[in-house]
Structure formats: structure tokens, C-alpha cells
């Protein structure tokens, strides 16, 4: 089954955000996970998605990734309404997700991991040369220089190297939106710096990036905008320069902050 795509909204498609979420609701039995979530995800910017445990962050990205179907609301991709029936549909649009477990196979090398499930064939045989070249070019384009060989087993890589390979795998397929779930979790200071630089390079290439993170230092280091979820509702969305750490924490815990000046939080639907 493929994603259902409706005609674009009236107006120039070029002016539409890459992704727009409109009034998304999602529940699981009696548990309301998301309520009336609306937000835009523009090209070439890093959007940090923050919130306490249970705020709805994972559910929201799974709706974008095609794992969950919203109960209400709609997703617009490049100005066209889409219905995602599966992660395969999301990937076909250019949406790739790097989950916290990275989904890498330790017993395979870097090339095998990057092409796992999407192997290239030539005359019914694996086209090893083509895959090696594509993997090498992708890593080089992202300035991933710490791996010794693209044929070394993933089990031999450090945490930062594994994260770099997972990110490179996500952009190998000309992705337009890359979603990352806690990309710096359990990494050291040096490895975290490498991954944050890699995220910035993605945005500089025009890729839209959504990053889930509990680490406020990383959020303020890498993000262009911060979206705050609380109890399944989007309570704020602003450029990073209009916020500070205490304000974000206030929004996460209470949904408001006395440190905000009127109009400093841009809620979805408000003019830029």
C-alpha cells in the first residue's frame, strides 16, 4: 500500500513548509497521547522537540514516520495532504528516522548496514562496488572521517561513530526530513560534539531535521527552533534565540513561564 496524496492547497507550493501538522490527535484506549498538535517543519532548519517523559514526543514522531495513524488531523507534505500507511510510505516521501537504538547490525560492516534491505544488484548479484562508492561518498559529504574503513564491522565502532553511520544511512536515500531520537544519549563530550556538527551539516544541505532531546545543552547548541510538548499538547514553538533553558523547563513542567514577554512564544498558526 502506498501513501495517499491529495492535491496541493491553493497557492504556490514553493512557499509551503516541507511538513505541516494540523490538529493532530492520537489516543491509545483511554490514554490521550496527543491533543490538537499543529506545527510546521521547514527545510534547512533543526527543530528540537522537547518535553518531559510522557509528553508525547515519541508518539508524534511515529505519526510522522508512518508507524501510527493520527485519530484526527492531517499531515501536509510540500503542500499536499498525505496519509501514511507505513514507514515505507514515509521513506518514499523522503522521511527517515534514526531511533535511539540506531537499528544497526553489529555483525555487518558499514556498507552492509547502510544498504540493509535496499541492496543494489547487478545481473542478480550484489553490486558491491556501487554500494561501496555510494557509502564512501555519503560519509565524505557529511565529513565523517573517523572511521578507518567502510568495511569494518559496526561492532568495532565507538558510540559516536555508530551514530554517524546511522545518520549517514538516513541521508543516503536523498532524504528531505531526518528525525533523530536522543542522538547524543550515552555519548562522551567529544563524540557528542561530532554528532552535533553532523546534524548542523544536514541542515546546511537543506535537510529538515527534528531532534528529540532531554539535554538542554545539546538543544541550545544545535537547534534553530524549539518546540515544547506537555501532556500531549504543543505549548510553545519559538526560535532558539528567543528562549533560555529555564524558560524551556518552565514550559515543559507547567506549560507557561513568567520569564516570557508577550508574544515571544509563537504558537502554530501565528504569523512568522
What CATH architecture would you give? 3-Layer(aba) Sandwich
Please write the CATH class name. Answer: Alpha Beta
What is the helix fraction of residues, given as a range?
A: 25-40%
Q: The CATH topology is what?
A: Rossmann fold
Individual helix count: 8
Largest β sheet strand count, sense and barrel closure: 6 strands, mixed
Number of strands: 13
Which descriptor suits the 3D outline?
Answer: globular
C-alpha Rg (nearest Å) = 19 Å
Give the strand content.
Answer: 25-35%
Strand order of the largest sheet: 7-10-11-4-12-13
CATH superfamily heading: P-loop containing nucleotide triphosphate hydrolases
The low-pLDDT segments are 267-272
Distance between the termini: 37 Å
Overall mean pLDDT: 89
Structural class: alpha/beta
Number of domains: 1
* H/E element sequence: EEEEHEEHEHEEHHEHEHEEH
Amino acid at each position: 500500500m502506498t501513501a495517499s496524496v491529495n492535491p496541493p492547497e491553493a497557492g504556490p507550493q514553493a512557499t509551503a513548509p516541507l511538513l505541516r501538522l494540523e490538529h493532530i490527535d492520537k489516543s491509545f484506549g483511554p490514554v490521550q497521547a496527543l491533543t490538537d498538535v499543529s506545527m510546521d517543519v521547514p527545510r534547512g532548519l533543526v527543530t528540537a522537540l522537547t518535553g518531559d517523559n510522557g509528553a508525547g514526543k515519541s508518539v508524534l514522531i511515529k505519526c510522522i514516520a508512518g508507524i501510527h495513524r493520527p485519530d484526527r488531523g492531517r499531515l501536509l507534505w510540500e503542500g499536499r495532504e498525505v496519509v501514511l500507511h507505513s514507514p515505507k510510505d514515509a521513506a518514499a516521501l523522503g522521511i527517515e528516522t534514526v531511533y535511539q537504538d540506531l537499528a544497526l547490525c553489529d555483525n555487518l560492516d558499514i556498507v552492509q548496514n547502510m544498504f540493509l534491505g535496499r541492496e543494489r544488484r547487478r545481473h542478480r548479484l550484489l553490486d558491491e562496488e556501487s554500494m561501496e562508492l555510494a557509502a564512501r561518498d555519503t560519509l565524505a559529504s557529511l565529513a565523517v572521517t573517523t572511521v578507518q574503513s567502510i568495511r569494518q564491522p559496526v561492532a568495532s565502532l565507538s558510540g559516536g561513530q555508530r551514530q554517524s553511520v546511522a545518520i549517514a544511512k538516513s541521508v543516503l536515500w536523498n532524504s528531505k526530513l531526518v528525525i533523530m531520537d536522543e542522538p547524543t544519549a550515552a555519548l562522551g563530550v567529544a563524540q557528542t560534539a561530532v554528532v552535533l556538527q553532523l546534524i548542523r551539516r544536514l541542515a546546511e544541505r537543506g535537510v529538515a531535521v527534528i531532534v528529540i532531546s532531554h539535554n538542554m545543552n545539546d538543544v541550545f547548541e544545535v537547534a534553530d527552533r524549539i518546540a515544547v510538548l506537555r501532556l500531549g499538547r504543543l505549548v510553545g514553538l519559538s526560535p532558539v534565540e528567543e528562549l533560555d533553558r529555564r524558560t524551556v523547563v518552565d514550559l515543559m513542567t507547567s506549560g507557561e513561564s513568567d520569564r516570557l514577554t508577550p508574544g515571544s512564544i509563537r504558537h502554530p498558526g501565528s504569523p512568522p
